TrEMBL record:
The lineage of its organism: Bacteria, Pseudomonadati, Pseudomonadota, Gammaproteobacteria, Alteromonadales. Gene3D superfamilies: TolB, C-terminal domain (2.120.10.30). Substrate binds at residues 99, 101. Binds 1 divalent metal cation per subunit. Residues 14-254 form the SMP-30/Gluconolactonase/LRE-like region domain. This is SMP-30/gluconolactonase/LRE family protein. One of its GO terms (molecular function) is gluconolactonase activity. The active site is at residue 196. PANTHER family: REGUCALCIN. It comes from Neiella litorisoli. One of its GO terms (biological process) is L-ascorbic acid biosynthetic process.
Amino acid sequence: MGLVKTALKIDAKLGECPRWDEVTQTLYWVDIDNFRLNQFDPATGLNTVLQLDEEIGCFALAKSGGFVAALRSGFVTIASMEGGIEAITDPEADKPWQRFNDGRCDAAGRFIAGTLNPNKDDYSGHFYSLEGTQAKRLIGNNWTSNGLAFSPDNRTLYYSDTPRHTVFASDYDLASGEVSNERIFAEFPKGWGRPDGAAVDSEGNYWSALYGGGRVVQINPQGQIINTITVPAQNPTMLAFGGPDLKTLYITTTKAGSAEEAEQYPLSGSIFAVDVEVAGLVEPRFGA
């Protein structure tokens, strides 16, 4: 395991959803609360911004070009980093107080994204599976739908409900896109941090950013923590494997929430990178 380095020094309010593009060798990511989709080029240090009009919780690259994304107003396509937004569908049009949060594509090209309830007064956050222009509810009853990832053989779906400090695993049928046999995969005690965004490596280990804990953990398929990385920010949010060999782990974070936190973690909001020993997986793209 290498040293944690600052890949992009920036003051992101809520950095999230890093996605490595193996074609352009760049890292896409979002700043949810600043309504921004970003493209970061590690080779040049240039970060390009597409300013949106609302929160973008998560996105995926599309096979046809551009992106599919989950905005507060629902699923959309984005033509390019110059814009061009077209609505697809909003499965939670009746819940305007909720927003989309975390998601990614499965190996069949479905885009799966989950919502959160900011009031945390009801387990009303759900994951939805978007196939073409149709969205169906896949997993329900969360406060904060998070940590979505798939095992290398596509037979296990992982997700977390951050406020419950818990990561769940389910059997996943790639052909039908259905889940079954949900069980607890990992739980974290208070003080460790809460499981936020995640990624799975090529050996099937689940990597989780522990929000509030200032760390990233690598968990083997049996649910045991086998590595811990300390992050120079209190609130790491999500992970992506990148680089030519997919052995660079990129970590997004949030801006410091207090003067005390800013003093202790002056690089909060930045994107960090660390070289790891195991490669990640190429991220699937949206579309048939």
